[in-house]
Structures are given as C-alpha cells and as structure tokens.
Amino acid sequence: MNATYFGSTALSLNNATFSEKISGMIHPKYRFEFGGQVELNHDKLVLENWCEIKLNEIQSISCEFDENFSRFTTNVDSRPGFFLKGEPLIITHSNRKIYLMINWSFYTGFTDNKKWLKLIEEKRHKNL
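^ that's the sequence the OP posted. Answer follows.
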C-alpha cells in the first residue's frame, strides 16, 4: 500500500517558530520537515526521505489530537478537517513520537490516517 505523507516529530512540533506555526495552518509542508511516499509492506512502514519503522518496534499507535498536534496545526476553520478527520497518525517507537498526515487534502483537510491506522494495526497483529 502506498500514499503520500507529511511527517514530523513531537520535538520538532514543539520547537516550531511562530511563523512556522502560522504557515503550517495553510499547508503542512511549512510545518512538517519530512514528506514523500509512504509504503506499508509485510513488516515495516517505509517513509521516503526519512526513516523505516519495523512494525514489531511500534510501542503505540493512535489517531488523535494531543498536546503537540491540535486542530489548528494544519487546518484553519474554513476546512471540514478542522471539525472532522483532521487527527494525525501518531506512532511511538524507539522512545520517539512521530506525527503523520497521510494523503492530506489541501481543500478539505481530510486524511487517510484512520484507514492507515487500521491497516497498520492489522499487519502488526498478524506479525505477532
């Protein structure tokens, strides 16, 4: 399975400048330092231009807003994603928390994050 992504770490999101925060509300490319193709294969998640995450190394995975990523991180209130489907996919592994926006739509703010959460969880359980 392949898609496009924007990604960042909790540390980077917390250390963003004011201008990065404002620009990031318009488009994630201004707030998320990584982007490219994401691929889910039988035992790992491959994030082009960034890293590979083995499914058995994932400590936790969720799709929700938190203290590092709020509704305002990538959406302004004119996009439907502000109200629904705008949550990041959060993966914790190797004591690092990463945030992903998979197939993010500029016009709606919607992502395929919940779909990918389900797919990753299914593959993780198959590999246990």
